[in-house]
Design goal:
homodimer; 114 residues; alpha+beta; Arc Repressor Mutant, subunit A; three-stranded antiparallel sheet; 64% helix; 12% strand; DNA-binding; DNA-binding transcription factor activity (chains A, B); Helix-turn-helix domain-containing protein (chains A, B)
DNA sequence: AGAAAGGGTAACCTATTGGTTACGCGTTTG
DNA sequence: CAAACGCGTAACCAATAGGTTACCCTTTCT
């Protein structure tokens, strides 16, 4: 799976898919290489599990599979320093951190009820 | 740099180095492949910047270079879901999170003083 | 039904990679 | 100072990866 992100074209594809689902043709159209070449990159990504595909009519739509990225992050995490995590925390302060506290509070309530 | 972690031997080496500095010979000794083969993997890791080396007498000691892992994490982060970060937060609750809050408090104090 | 569109697979070629053995060079040791 | 140690590099070889063109299947349009 780590080998899947080794190739620059495949990394590009992953970044593109962050913007939403794309068909094979749309993806291939954005690269200077031939369509079959892109098709094989897509196969590698599929087999690595980083990407999922669905057939819709005569086209095949691709989208990210978030689960696998979590595995990558899990492997990477032990190499990171605490300060790295702090930066992430800063970035997500308003997003995650608050909702997290809110759910905490909710859980507290439940515990008291139970 | 992403290509550096594509190879399983190199990933193994990185994991080994998490335990501290190791000489080239110590690293090579833990693999079934020949020493020159390992030596070239080490060169790839060196050139990728994930690893630093220092010559000590007639041996060459290797250690992780944390900075590059941060870059990897930065690339990976946009692919992760908020829930992933929450898990990390749980794992680091006592480590980072508390000291973070403590420093926050300290900064607050400074602001009031200034 | 036939033509066109979307897209994967096969066969093929070249460049890269990862392994091996042979070798060279600086550092330690007897 | 010579022998031994630690380790990188060079030359070579087989396997893999990534590109290309040619081909085939399925779905849509007329």
């Amino acid at each position: 799976m780590a080998a899947a992100i080794a190739d620059p074209v495949r990394r590009q594809i992953l970044v593109m898919l962050r913007g939403g689902r794309l068909s094979a043709g749309q993806i291939a159209g954005r690269f200077p290489i031939s369509r079959p070449a892109v098709s094989r990159h897509l196969r590698v990504l599929r087999q690595s599990g980083l990407v999922r595909d669905e057939l819709v009519g005569r086209q095949r739509l691709y989208e990210l599979d978030a689960g696998r990225f979590t595995e990558l992050a899990a492997w990477l995490a032990p190499f990171l320093q605490p300060s790295d995590w702090e930066h992430r925390l800063d970035a997500l302060e308003t997003e995650v951190y608050r909702t997290r506290r809110e759910r905490r509070a909710a859980d507290q309530t439940k515990e008291n009820t139970a």
